[in-house]
Amino acid sequence: MSFKFKKTKDSQSDKLYLFVNYEGGDGDTKHPEYYEFKNIKFSEYQNHLEEIQSKIKDFKTLKKILDSSSGDVEYDYVKTEYGDKIARLFDDAPNDPQCDYQWKCYVDRIQLVGFDSEGNKFEAYV
Predict the structure, then answer these.
(1) Residues 121, 114: contact at Cβ < 8 Å?
(2) Using N-to-C axis directions, what is the helix angle for 84-92 and 75-82, rounded to 10°?
(3) Entry pTM
(4) Model pLDDT, residue 70
(5) What is the CA angle 85-97-79, rounded to 5?
(6) Would you say residue 103 has pLDDT above 90?
(7) Where do the DSSP E strands lie in 66-119?
(8) Which residue ranges make up each domain of the chain?
(9) End-to-end CA distance of the chain
């Protein structure tokens, strides 16, 4: 027996991501998302701490909004109170299938994930 493999993904070398795990219900559904820092190599992240911290701050703001919303926060409110960038993050957050997609999922955790030049994976909670 033989298998015909095809390449489905390039190697993850020297890349940096912000991993955001959204959850719905009581943690019944998980919606992991990786946001790549396209212009930042893992090997050079120390030179970009301000940009990285800014993105982390945006997602922590989103987490605060989703944690306190009880499902009744709307896009227009978020845009007025927090601006366009946070409103886009809010709009892009997945809707919770446990409540018929009426409300947004919450942010369970945020991590920095990096891959070194050899493809080894590193994680840091933020």
Answers:
(1) yes
(2) 150
(3) 0.87
(4) 62
(5) 20
(6) no
(7) 106-115
(8) 15-125
(9) 47
Write out the two tokens for 76. 């227009």
Residue-level pLDDT at 73: 85
Q: By C-alpha distance, which of 77, 84, 108 is closest to 94? A: 108
- Quick one: which of 97, 30, 102 has its CA closest to 70? 102
- Look at residue 122 and tell me whether its pLDDT is greater than 70: yes
Buried b (16+ CB within 10 A) or exposed e, 38-73: eebbbeebeebeeebeebeebbebbbebbeebeeeb
Q: How many CB atoms lie within 10 A of CB 74?
A: 10
> In terms of Cα–Cα distance, which of 76, 60, 66, 68 is closest to 104?
66
Helices 49-68 and 75-82: crossing angle in degrees, nearest 10, is 140
